[in-house]
Amino acid sequence: MKPALRVITSGPATTVQDRGRFGFVDMGVPVCGALDGFAARVANRLVGNRPDCAVLEATLVGPCLEVLRDLDIAVTGARTDLAVNGRRQPGWTTCRVAPGDRIEVGAADNGCRIYIAVTGGIDVPPVMGSRSTYLGGKLGGMKGRVLQEGDLLPCAQGELLARPRALPWHPLYTGETWLRAIPGPQDDFFTSALAVLGASGYSVTAQANRMGYRLEGPALIREPGAAASIVSEAVVPGSIQVPADGQPIILLTEQTLGGYAKIATVISVDLFKVAQARPGDIFHFLPVTLAQAHEALAQWVAYLAWIDALLES
Amino acid sequence: MDRHGYERTRFRICGDRAMLAEYGEGVSLAVNERVRAMALVLDQERPEGVEGVIPAYRSLAIVYDPLVVGTQALQERLLEMEARIGRTRIPPPRTVEIPVRYGGEMGPDLQTVAAHNGLTPEAVVRLHTEAIYPIYAVGFAPGFCYLGGLDPRLHTPRLATPRTRVAAGSVGIAETQTGVYPSDSPGGWQLIGRTPLNLFNPARVEPFLYRAGDRIRFVPIDPATFASIRAAEEAP
Fold first, then answer.
1. Does the beta-carbon distance from B138 to A231 stay under 8 Å?
2. What digits encode the pLDDT tens for the residues A92-105?
3. Residue-wise pLDDT tens digits, A209-226
4. How many CB pairs under 8 A join A and B?
5. Could you tell me which of A28, A46, A178, A276 has the fewest CB atoms within 10 Å of its CB?
6. What is the secondary structure of B108-159 as a DSSP string?
């Protein structure tokens, strides 16, 4: 298929992502997928795509793209100075582009992850059922790597919208974020440290990437006799592991097993907030029960359906 | 169940979409056998709402959709399955043979492992190929096996300085463990040989040759066999 976009500049860490690669976690192939599932989903809806179409995910600085065929595009997530042919365009809104147009996504001044959806979705060949890039395994997306200058991006066929769509508000990502977390799986290792986790702020360090966010704050001390290392077991996106130095790491979507004890797990609906945090931002942790987390998930699913209806009305 | 096994399965909460079922302490073949049996039964029955099962040494992570199946209901279902596995015939583990060319440029550290343990290189190869290795878990990288069962006479420390690139298929030893690198990567293991097989090929219908719970046996091969298997693996 004829490519739809040419990469003029890529930004430092722009990858192709869909909802993720499911079914191989037991073989060490992590799910990957868009870190901010909400922004990626809305971007797809803004151009009339199914929510599981592949989009571009940029970190801090977005790409500059040359348009090779008529397309609708939408840029969501972190706020940038999006411009088409030098003219400013709003984010979270459908924008029609034509061959020869130049899309400059720009740098994020609020939030961290930028999503770019295009009509039909980015159509790189699926690998094991997904177009998501797994950087650590060098597979999926654009040859398993970040985008480079000169890359030609294929897009699937799709209908251009009869009229543009817009999310009536633009989410802002605050520098201080509350993350709801469920104690465990090794909460018995951290009985007193759980109080520290709940009462302190933890700042995001420069070691923050798609694999995980290393935080800095009051050390989380294990109970006497509890080891830092455990027999390796599965980890999930949101697992807060605590190495021997007591500084927590929130794992994201590129790891499947781990050998450190985990004090708590960020609930699934709050993971997008982690994805949008930048080095220096502060996390606070709010302990919640499993029942509260499931209630939040049910509300979130209803909210997503409401947004779908809103965008299509 | 041996002394490592729990009387009663311990459930641990891993956020709102996963739980761990833990069957015992430490690293034990008997405990892992229980993990394997439960993984097999879950695979066959695929209870509604279960999205994934990740076996490891002594635990099984169950990823589920809590809007389809409640946590409590899922735990009860798992306990009910567990009660049944005592009465069900669980098929024995598969043993997957991995051909390995030992020594030479494929295994630059064979001599080091031999010298460290006061053995000849031939004895290292013999001990390494005599054992049958249980796959306790697969993770860290696609297809990377956490193997048990390395003969204590082969235990060798890691390299002081890790290599920046280890070729896919390299077979190594690090401390008490042996393993194979499924893909090119940096690494600090003592390399004793290499398999010509692609352990992981995302383009294959079955991208992997084994799964957690299977056993691995290494089979020594000569250079000609290595070359012919390699050629077949590289054929389009």
1. no
2. 999 999 999 999 99
3. 999 999 999 999 999 999
4. 125
5. A178
6. TTHHHHHHHTT--HHHHHHHHHHS-EEEEEE-SSTT-EEE----GGG-BPPP
